[in-house]
């Protein structure tokens, strides 16, 4: 503190938002913010076509289609060949699987370039799937942190601008355990910081499954506890919050009680849980569909956006199945 001219003046500390992110350069933070701004264009959401080959194999087997790399390529190419004007009206960006990133279309165009030609921002799923979490009752964590930085650097060079990582939680009287929530929060935070260091915006997906007999109040309690732990951990890892996208579940009752929950109740529970846990610095929340039908996800997302409350984030969607049902049925007929 210095005294000048009879007045007490304090040395001003910088209020620059970048000060606390000593692991990130200001230019990098600005780049992350610009990517998020482009992804959260008004009225648009994110299309997730990042299913693993094994997941698509199961879908195709149900339709008596032999799954091959070229068949998976053709399906995703068809999905993204929607009329450009209509596609751009609703979709800002696309999450791809590693396989798709390095494929070419039937016209010999690199898939990343094909996505860019549609005026869409390409991204990639970087986690390597769920594994059992020892010390818990069949709870899971997600693998893939080994060599993640090297992979992210390469994805950025190859044209991707964001990444996605998913952890899951089940609800019961005793789950999710504190160990599962804390472990997965640290995994998500490590992933996010690594992704940002490679100039890629991390989509953080802590999916709370709606399988079970729990009511919506129990679901909201779990969402609030899990998100509180997650954001405390993200701050401890110095993750730049203005440069992330949160991809949570809507607050839903278990499947046995879902029919009793109207969209307005889901909206109130979801928004209140977010208000209590998600900082206003987070620019965008893109909900996953979480096993709901395309109609249910549309009605519930609309109710969330119509719900009158303070909502400092852009609220939109990051759907996979809810946007693909009609397309996969059409693909079966072709």
Automatic annotation (TrEMBL):
Keywords: Glycolysis, Lyase, Schiff base. Pathway: Carbohydrate degradation; glycolysis; D-glyceraldehyde 3-phosphate and glycerone phosphate from D-glucose: step 4/4. GO terms for molecular function: fructose-bisphosphate aldolase activity. One of its GO terms (biological process) is glycolytic process. InterPro entries: Aldolase_I_AS, Aldolase_TIM, FBA_I. It holds the Pfam family Glycolytic. SUPFAM superfamilies: Aldolase. It catalyses: beta-D-fructose 1,6-bisphosphate = D-glyceraldehyde 3-phosphate + dihydroxyacetone phosphate. Its EC number is 4.1.2.13. NCBIfam families: FrucBisAld_I. Belongs to the class I fructose-bisphosphate aldolase family. This is Fructose-bisphosphate aldolase. It comes from Cephus cinctus (Wheat stem sawfly). The gene is LOC107266808.
């Amino acid at each position: 503190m210095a005294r000048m001219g009879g007045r007490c003046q304090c040395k001003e500390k910088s209020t620059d938002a970048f000060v606390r992110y000593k692991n990130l350069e200001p230019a990098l933070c600005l780049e992350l913010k610009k990517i998020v701004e482009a992804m959260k264009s008004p009225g648009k959401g994110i299309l997730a076509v990042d299913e693993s080959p094994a997941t698509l194999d199961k879908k195709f087997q149900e339709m008596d289609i032999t799954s091959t790399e070229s068949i998976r390529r053709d399906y995703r190419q068809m999905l993204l060949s929607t009329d450009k004007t209509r596609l751009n009206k609703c979709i800002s960006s696309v999450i791809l699987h590693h396989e798709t990133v390095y494929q070419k279309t039937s016209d010999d165009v690199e898939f990343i370039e094909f996505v860019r030609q549609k005026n869409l921002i390409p991204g990639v799923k970087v986690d390597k799937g769920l594994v059992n979490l020892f010390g818990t009752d069949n709870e899971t964590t997600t693998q893939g942190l080994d060599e993640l930085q090297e992979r992210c650097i390469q994805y950025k060079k190859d044209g991707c601008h964001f990444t996605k990582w998913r952890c899951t939680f089940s609800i019961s009287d005793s789950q999710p355990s504190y160990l599962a929530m804390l472990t997965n929060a640290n995994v998500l935070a490590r992933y996010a910081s690594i992704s940002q260091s490679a100039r890629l915006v991390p989509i953080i997906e802590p999916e709370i499954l709606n399988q079970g007999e729990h009511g919506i109040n129990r679901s909201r309690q779990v969402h609030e506890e899990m998100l509180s732990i997650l954001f405390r951990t993200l701050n401890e890892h110095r993750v730049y919050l203005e440069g992330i996208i949160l991809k949570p579940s809507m607050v839903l009752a278990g499947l046995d009680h879902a029919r009793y929950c109207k969209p307005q109740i889901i909206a109130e529970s979801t928004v209140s849980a977010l208000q209590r846990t998600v900082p206003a610095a987070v620019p965008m929340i893109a909900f996953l569909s979480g096993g709901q039908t395309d109609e249910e996800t549309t009605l519930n997302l609309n109710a969330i956006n119509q719900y009158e409350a303070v909502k400092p984030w852009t609220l939109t969607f990051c759907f996979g199945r809810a946007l693909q049902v009609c397309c996969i049925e059409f693909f079966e007929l072709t």
